[in-house]
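Hi support team,

I've been running sequence recovery on a batch of backbones for a student project. Most finish fine, but this one hangs at about 90% for roughly twenty minutes before it completes. I'm not sure whether the input is malformed or the queue is just slow. I've pasted the structure tokens below so you can try to reproduce it. Let me know if you need the job ID as well.

Thanks,
M.K.
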């Protein structure tokens, strides 16, 4: 197979909405529909092939399809999601690898966000607006004044944010985005607006662990040149309209259609593609081409 269409696992976190279903065509009975894990080998939410097997099953049978750059990682390095934040997400942080492997037995989490749509005046939290001490951080968590020192950033469609592990952050209400991240599901919440979960109890906070890993500083500016984002775990590009590429032996190619429609051709096979769909091209499958009005998020390792 030169073109593999993936079906996501979905999540019904309480802050989610309905736009992934109505605007992006994600098929799910969940309500709310908060996240669609469109490329995932994580056991908490695998992606599926058309025959019902998981991407993990496919990779186990065809390890060469991941590429030589994936082979250097003990675990599959990347996970890609759609996220619909009808309401504010918790203020949270993800640990770095060493801490996460020791305490959670999985990777830490560096990630990037690509804003697909947002309501007027939408914003997100991205690090602190000035450096503070760990003591002040702990005190502000305790007395509910943390947002007073966070870096609140207005967002617009097409904005991109690179969020290294240790960066305190939160997606604000009214934002729909694509997230490319390390293959991890470790989140430490420090503030959750006093909300309760489905069991009627306040959702768990993870203050002590967050204090261990949070960088109490403003975010660092990054320049990735022609790329949206790049680190040792993923390289991400945005393409508008027709383009060509190559799935070489180094990495698979993930193509996430974020808007429009068109066709995808690879290995003598051509398929129609449209907004909301996720495609996996195995490593070494050669040249591919996208045509039409699509906007496409391209991720490699």
């Amino acid at each position: 197979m030169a073109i593999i269409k993936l079906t996501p696992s979905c999540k019904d976190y309480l802050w989610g909405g309905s736009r992934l279903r109505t605007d992006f065509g994600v098929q799910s009975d969940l309500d709310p529909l908060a996240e669609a894990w469109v490329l995932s080998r994580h056991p908490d939410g695998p992606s599926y092939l058309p025959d019902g097997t998981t991407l993990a099953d496919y990779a186990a049978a065809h390890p060469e399809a991941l590429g030589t750059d994936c082979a250097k990682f003990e675990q599959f390095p990347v996970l890609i999601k759609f996220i619909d934040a009808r309401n504010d997400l918790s203020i949270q942080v993800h640990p770095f690898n060493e801490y996460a492997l020791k305490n959670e037995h999985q990777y830490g989490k560096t990630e990037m966000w690509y804003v697909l749509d947002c309501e007027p005046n939408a914003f997100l939290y991205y690090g602190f607006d000035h450096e503070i001490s760990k003591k002040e951080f702990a005190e502000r968590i305790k007395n509910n004044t943390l947002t007073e020192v966070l870096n609140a950033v207005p967002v617009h469609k097409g904005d991109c944010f690179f969020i290294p592990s240790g960066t305190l952050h939160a997606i604000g209400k009214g934002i729909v985005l694509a997230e490319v991240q390390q293959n991890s599901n470790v989140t430490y919440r420090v503030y959750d607006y006093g909300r309760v979960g489905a069991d009627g109890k306040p959702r768990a906070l993870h203050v002590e662990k967050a204090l261990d890993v949070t960088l109490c500083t403003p975010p660092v500016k990054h320049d990735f040149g022609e790329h949206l984002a790049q680190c040792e775990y993923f390289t991400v590009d945005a393409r508008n309209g027709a383009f060509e590429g190559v799935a070489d032996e180094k990495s698979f190619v993930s193509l996430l259609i974020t808007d429009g429609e068109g066709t995808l051709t690879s290995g003598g096979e051509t398929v129609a593609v449209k907004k909301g769909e996720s495609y996996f091209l195995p490593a070494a499958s050669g040249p591919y081409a996208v045509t039409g009005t699509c906007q496409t998020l391209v991720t490699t390792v």
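--
Follow-up from support: It reproduced on our side and the slowdown came from queue contention, not your input. The longest strand covers residues 78-85. No action needed from you.
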